[in-house]
Each structure stands twice: as C-alpha cells, then as structure tokens.
Amino acid sequence: MALAFTIAEMTEYLSEVFPQVEGMFAIDQMDEQLLVMRLVVSESHLRPGGTVSGPSMFGLADVAAYVATLARIGRQALAVTTHCSIDFMRKPEAGVDLLAQARVLKLGRTLSVTDVLLFSEGSDAPVAHASLTYSIPPARVG
C-alpha cells in the first residue's frame, strides 16, 4: 500500500491539525513497514529523578500510532484513540530523545491496530511497549 503522505507533508499536516505539539515530535522514518518518531525531550517531559515521565511516553506512542495510521488513510484528522495499553519496562536514559517504532498490524475500514516500541536513543533495549487501536471516521473527510 502506497503511503498518503511524505514525511514533509505529514509534518506540515500535523502542524495544521495539532499546532500544540509542533517541535515536540519529529518523524525520522516513514515507510510501508515502519514509522520511527522522535520525542524531542525537554525539561517539560521530565519527572522528579530526571527521567522521562509516563505521560510523555504515552504521548509519543499515541502520536506515533496516529501518524502511522494517517500515513495510510490520508487526511483524517478525526481518527481517534479507542484503546491503548502500555507497559513501562525500564527507566529511559537521561538526556536523550525517545524513539518510537510503530507498526500498523491491521488496517480495516473502521479500525487501525498499531504496535509501538519505545527506546532511548542509542539503546537497543525498549523502555516501553504499547498497543493502540484507532477509530477511523466513516465519512473519511479530512
């Protein structure tokens, strides 16, 4: 399946529909098999002890699943999360960005199921694993 966006087009679209997260996330890779998205970690993402907070990790997983889904279905800003399960497996490394590797496992007419692994940049050991389901609006209007 050909993707509906290039990385530049997706970045522009995200700025249009989610201006509040502009500069917080970056797409490193986007192809038919894998999306790699980065959380540009700043002080606002840290919790006491200097580690990346759980809500920040959840946000990265959620946005990565959203982008992976939109990359396939096109301009569907109203696609929404209907389910998320996340396991926090280890403490993220301090002072580095987090990377999400997202794979769409199933894309149907009304639902998209995505698997996301989160890593501290430069590490091979995942810090979290998430499974997300997105509801795709029936009208398919951007």
Describe the structure.
The protein is of the alpha+beta class. It contains 2 helices and 8 strands; from the N terminus they run αββββαββββ. The protein has one domain (7-135): Roll (Thiol Ester Dehydrase, Chain A). 22% of the residues lie in helices and 38% in strands. Strands 1-2-6-7-8-5 form a 6-stranded antiparallel β-sheet, with helices on one face. It has a two-stranded antiparallel sheet with strand order 3-4. A hairpin with a 4-residue loop joins strand 1 (25-30) and strand 2. It is globular. The two termini are 19 Å apart.
Give descriptors for this structure.
142 residues; alpha+beta; Thiol Ester Dehydrase, Chain A; six-stranded antiparallel beta sheet; 2 helices
Tell me the radius of gyration: 14 Å
CATH class: Alpha Beta
How many domains? The number is 1
Low-confidence stretches: none
In terms of structural class, how would the helical and strand content be classed? alpha+beta
Helical content band: 10-25%
Beta-strand portion reads 35-45%
Distance between the termini: 19 Å
Major beta sheet, strand line-up: 1-2-6-7-8-5
Order of helices and strands: HEEEEHEEEE
Rough outline: globular
CATH topology value: Thiol Ester Dehydrase, Chain A
Q: Which sheet architecture does the biggest sheet show?
A: 6 strands, antiparallel
CATH homologous superfamily heading: Hotdog Thioesterase
What's the CATH architecture? Roll
**Chain-averaged pLDDT:** 93
